[in-house]
């Protein structure tokens, strides 16, 4: 279903954004094409089962939420030796060709209404370029949203035999009146034998609607590992996807979420095995409290030519309240028989026996429960290479448990 | 090949399932579906006015509803055109209604069922048998000792006459309303034949009752309705078998099954379907389970061009439980889309779903499941396990479970695995002197064993033979 085009959107708006940033012609064309696509493309697919849609993206008032000419953010970028970490506006000169060649290649700007909207209107974001042979561990992007709506686009390009670990942190800054909308597109294109870990920690305030699509494309022997932490927002729709296009390439998608109050988290992890000898591992752990609701879809799609595939998926949800709801659909789509694939999903509550054991050792019940919840996240926390990220996430979890 | 295996193959399974008869009917409706057709069927069956009205309401719903086309990866139904189907064929049987002596059946019908082994099965292991040929039940028998206890097993058309109150109360009212889906509505409009099973309170029918459905005519649809009512603290095992030979035009099978499991009652519903590879098998099966009742669905889906079948259980009373065991086998040109649906609507309810699928030669199997746990269904638990075995990269196997959990105090687990047939296992068996085909067949038999061991021996043998037939000679 298509959403109504906000009246504030026009070719002039898009040209004004592009002119203000001194953009090359090709980017303006890409934006205008995305704007035009808004007339025809649909909102992202959401899961439907008899009698219900699991997430209602149509209900968002895009007219009210989108204020393209008043976008404001404060973004801090920390770079490491040999890596180029720049806002787009500073990258057009030196890296104009790399940008033009890679922008919108892994993530099709016109794949749905929200990606098209974001491409037409983005004013912030980062270009990260890792030249051949560079190993970097300490790239950080800390973004603060300071306006009613903010559209961000991040492009990561790594050359052959390079590696980089990137941490992105997104928070709300100055509060504005009413509901807000944050859109975050991230695309990663990797060279041969290149390793990327991209961690994202979202802790927006509870008036913010959040859409993110993160998509990677692996080269031969390449690895893309995603960590997707979702703590904040009123509603989050997050899609993390890897296309394993290089032979012997790998991906891991690690997710952690903690919903409380009336948060709605629609989290999706998808992987397409397109080449030979590829491996995927999808791990998500989440906790729900109060009236929070989680929707999870995991897709492992093994193509006809994906010989010798290994693909694993696990999703576990812990429910702390009777008013919460956890919906899950882990999907396996297998076209090649030379595959070892499995998925599992569980939903449960804090183990009574564990709780009993701890309270009988004189740990107060609330403390015991909190400890068990923290312990529940350990398998996910263990996958996080960046200390700062892991500590931040742990801190946010324990703050929520108080 | 070992001598044991030769012995197994002595029965010519192919001849048993693929033979077909000259079409021989006394009455049949025109192709297509109109109000007139519905009235003609109802009149031919001497139905009470309320049943005609129910049929007409269902027809209206059918005409209003769109074809289901929007499920991810669902079978292609574009070929299914109801206007090309003969919805009702009354076979040429002298006796009005069904006969209860096998020898009274016309030879061609008797031959058909003889070849399928129905009379032997009855002699050996069953407390009752019904056989449906085209749209009508042609044979119905129930052992006397069960009749004396008040157990009813008769064809559905007859039940409309003889147990009108029960049928009026339960037939497509509480369990499967015609509005459930387009094919349930179609079924409601033109249903014909099927079984009616009633087991009174405190009665255990300790031998299975069986019905066999056979489609013999080209381009026909079969729409049998099965209604099982198991009163408090009763127990019954119902077995249904289905087959149809291959014709060039497509056939449509759209059955309806409604099961009412009373308090502390236990119903097992087993089915092995082997429709021909031009049949669209679009069924609606559902059970409602009261307090501490237990429902078990066991199904083997072997034949058909496309199957869409998701037996559903509504766990309505506290402590009710449900058990699904399914196996699907898709060969060339087949799309078997099957799964299970369970609604946990009361506390302390339990369900388990075990699904196995095999795909080869471009076949496509889907597991599509829904587990719903309502708010307040405290201490409920569900475990879903799906395994898929694939033979080649022309085939496809999908697992699409949906879980809607509205209650925190639950235990939900879903697991699925997909793998190719193990090279090492084959090597091992080959090194012990088995050829490649036999080794693969043996591995498949082992893979489906958890299902076959739940079936009565007759059906387990039949299922194994069908698997053998599917596997024969087609492996490289």
Automatic annotation (TrEMBL), chain A:
Ranges for domain SUF system FeS cluster assembly SufBD N-terminal: 71-137
InterPro entries according to UniProt: Fe-S_cluster_assembly_SufBD, SUF_FeS_clus_asmbl_SufBD_core, SUF_FeS_clus_asmbl_SufBD_sf, SUF_FeS_clus_asmbl_SufD, SufBD_N
Domain named SUF system FeS cluster assembly SufBD core: residues: 146-376
Biased composition annotated in UniProt, kind: Basic and acidic residues: 12-21
Domain of life: Archaea
Alphabetical list of Pfam families matching this protein: SUFBD_core, SufBD_N
Name this polypeptide is given: Fe-S cluster assembly protein SufD
Gene name, Swiss-Prot/TrEMBL: sufD
TrEMBL record, chain B:
InterPro entries: Fe-S_cluster_assembly_SufBD, SUF_FeS_clus_asmbl_SufB, SUF_FeS_clus_asmbl_SufBD_core, SUF_FeS_clus_asmbl_SufBD_sf, SufBD_N
Highest taxon of source: Archaea
Region annotation (Disordered) ranges: 1-32
Domain SUF system FeS cluster assembly SufBD N-terminal: 138-210
Record domain SUF system FeS cluster assembly SufBD core: where: 213-447
Family: Belongs to the iron-sulfur cluster assembly SufBD family.
UniProt cross-references to NCBIfam families, sorted A to Z: sufB (TIGR01980)
Protein name: Fe-S cluster assembly protein SufB
Organism encoding this protein: Halogeometricum salsisoli
Gene name of this polypeptide: sufB
